[in-house]
Amino acid sequence: MLYKSVNESFNEFMIERSDPKCIRCKVCVRQCAYEVHSYVEADDRLAEDNTLCIGCRRCSALCPTGAITIRSNQETFKKNESWSAAHIRNVYAQADTGGILLTAMGNPAKYPIYWDHLLLDASQVTNPSIDPLREPMELRTYLGKKPDRIEVVHNEKTGKPELKTKLSPQLTLEYPFIFSAMSYGALNLNAHRAMAAAAQELGTIYNTGEGGLHKDLFKYGKNVIVQVASGRFGVSEQYLNAGVGIEIKIGQGAKPGIGGHLPGEKVDDQISETRMIPMGSDAISPAPHHDIYSIEDLRQLIYALKEATNYTKPVSVKIAAVHHIAAIASGVARAGADIITIDGFRGGTGAAPQVIRDNVGIPMELALAAVDSRLRDEGIRNQVSIVVGGGVRNSGDAIKAIALGADAINLGTSALLAMGCTLCQRCYTGKCPWGITTNNPYLAKRLNPEIGAEKLVNLVHAWGHEMKEILGGMGLNALESLRGNRYKLRAVGLTEKDMNLLGVMPAGE
Amino acid sequence: MKINAQGIYYRDLNSTIREAVLAGTDQIELNNVNGQYFIGDGINKPVTITINGVPGNDLAAFMNGATIIVNENGQDNIGNTMNAGKVIVHGHAGDVLGYGMRGGKIHIRKDVGYRVGIHMKSYQENKPVLIAGGKAGDFFGEYMAGGVLILLGMFTDDPAKDKHGYLFGTGMHGGVIYVRGGVDESRLAKEVGVFELDDDDRAALEGYVAEFCQDFKLDVQEVLKERFVKVLPRSKRPYGNMYCPMPK
């Protein structure tokens, strides 16, 4: 605590240590990536520097005797409804450094969460519910362009009907979940191994994110979407052909409209090789793709990718949920995308300016409803699948998203939580105490890829099970029957306008 | 193999090329090309495609090992995220050439447009080289992370134009740019500085220029007799000090 600047002493967390419980094992000293704990040899006691604590709870979780408790610092500034402690401390930090405030993970600010105002229907008396434990229940999801109509002809030789219509390439997901694009670099290889292996086990997809695909992970190709972002990291002809789909990243919910700088601290030799940038340099993703300044240019990149892969892979375009999302999505669909991925403003990030994360974009629920309605109105909803992400916290949110019109859900934050993240929002430091968003080998080995994969598989199994129960309760036996079926949703505590935008009726009606 | 591209839709033309490459053809001549997109896109065999006419955008995008010779002018996005191979354009070319290029060579005899060599990158033996014999527009070498850009300023359709535009090397954090006859320092971005060539530079440059001159039947000595300068990034992390962590 000594020799700190005044501002550094307005710390957010306090460490409480029970001396009778402490056995001086020094686990806390070894586990803390931020060097909060230290052992004082002379007194045979553990000491802490509260000003360094980020509240990740690694020490309290691993303390074998439960001697450590992390509490928020109750010492306060004078109560002020306008200036919260966070506002005040941010000003101090910026006055000290002149820097853009950097943060991570999704928008934690107090904005309405529409999931919490939507309720699902269930069958009673007039139509029977279905018991998913004893009857088949279908969660399988196909992503890609669907034909306007299909033509079936009679095959004279086999005597059987045959599909004459040529179908566009599709992604097959056994669960309507995709492990969201979180780049190799932002996350370490262990996390990527876990997601890739889990996707394979589940029969679903893992998105590489914009940092390329590590050479060891090419073998998971059937369960991989490769992403192409403005930095074009790790993008080559082999990479494009390595997965089953390609995603063009235009925007990200946590930071719409801006690019990204993966801090040089995280660029080690493996990441340097995969991304093809110098070790220790920032991996800079420009704000726009400099070959895309219009919908026509987007079409050009979509078709450049399709040409490069001989039209064998669906192309997704990921955009952040922003004000004119419906018109933008219509343009994206018409530009030839097979999948539109919409990232809401609660979507996570490894690093973003706080002012952007907390103030730019719109909630995914509204964006999804607007896009689904618009594409239906224009008669082009079948031309694209819609994948949404950014703020789906449980299977209830997920199934509401399906009812609002989503084809599949991106799991980002929830996948990280499954692997042990505690949402401390410090991914950009490269010192993740849980070994997920760090490339420091000492920290990264805390994430065992096999255990990580198992947890991801468990989570998706659990959510899948819950979704089947909900579907069965509604008397539906396939997720397809719920897709865009907003009749199965009712709103509580929303305004007339909100309900119009969401296309749902009030509860009771 | 010769293909008359007159009036053929780009998708059909490229499909014909792909099938021919797959069947083992190693020489393809395209005649009457008139703006067809994506020629050579994603081709991963060492085929040589000669183009008579003007190919459209995204020529050699994602290309991985083929050679393309354009006997007239090229358009935008040549060598977009190209991995290996070579593109030779005997005329001038457009904007955003070699975007995200990871390897191989692009030789343009005359002028190039805006944002050329943007975010080129390299790793060990994968080292892209883009040489423009004429003049360049703004944002030359923007965000460059690796590889080699060379600007000669010699062969141009517009003698009155400046050799290069504004914001030269903006955001550059890796790689090297060589410019014949010096640069206009008032037009350099703040992230780069100008340096003298050392012996290693000169040896490398002579090799690159010799190959360029061979492609266009030019006199190497004539090109090399002028002084070259080297433009390098000042930092691997041009934006490393831009941020302030959230207070703890």
Automatic annotation (TrEMBL), chain A:
Lineage: superkingdom: Bacteria
Broad enzyme group: oxidoreductase
Record-linked Gene3D superfamilies: 3.30.70.20, Aldolase class I (3.20.20.70)
UniProt family annotation: Belongs to the glutamate synthase family.
Keywords on record: 4Fe-4S, Amino-acid biosynthesis, Glutamate biosynthesis, Iron, Iron-sulfur, Metal-binding, Oxidoreductase
PANTHER family assigned to the protein according to its UniProt record, in alphabetical order: ARCHAEAL-TYPE GLUTAMATE SYNTHASE [NADPH]
Reaction catalyzed: 2 L-glutamate + NADP(+) = L-glutamine + 2-oxoglutarate + NADPH + H(+)
InterPro entries in the cross-refs: 4Fe4S_Fe-S-bd (IPR017896), 4Fe4S_Fe_S_CS (IPR017900), Aldolase_TIM (IPR013785), GltB (IPR024188), GltB_archl_type (IPR043578), Glu_synthdom (IPR002932)
Protein name per UniProt: glutamate synthase (NADPH)
Enzyme Commission (EC) number: 1.4.1.13
GO molecular function terms attached to this record: 4 iron, 4 sulfur cluster binding; glutamate synthase (NADPH) activity; metal ion binding
Domain 4Fe-4S ferredoxin-type, first and last residues per copy: 11-42, 44-73
Species of origin: Oryzomonas japonica
Binding site for [4Fe-4S] cluster 2: C32, C53, C56, C59
Annotated residues for binding of [4Fe-4S] cluster 1: C22, C25, C28, C63
Pfam families, sorted: Fer4_9, Glu_synthase
Biological process according to GO: glutamate biosynthetic process
From TrEMBL, chain B:
The protein's name: Glutamate synthase alpha subunit C-terminal domain-containing protein
Pfam families with a match to the protein in the record: GXGXG (PF01493)
MF (Gene Ontology): oxidoreductase activity
Residue intervals of the Glutamate synthase alpha subunit C-terminal domain: 29-184
Species this chain originates from: Oryzomonas japonica
InterPro entries: Archaeal_gltB, Glu_synth_asu_C, Glu_synth_asu_C_sf, Glu_synth_lsu_3
Lineage: Bacteria, Pseudomonadati, Thermodesulfobacteriota, Desulfuromonadia, Geobacterales
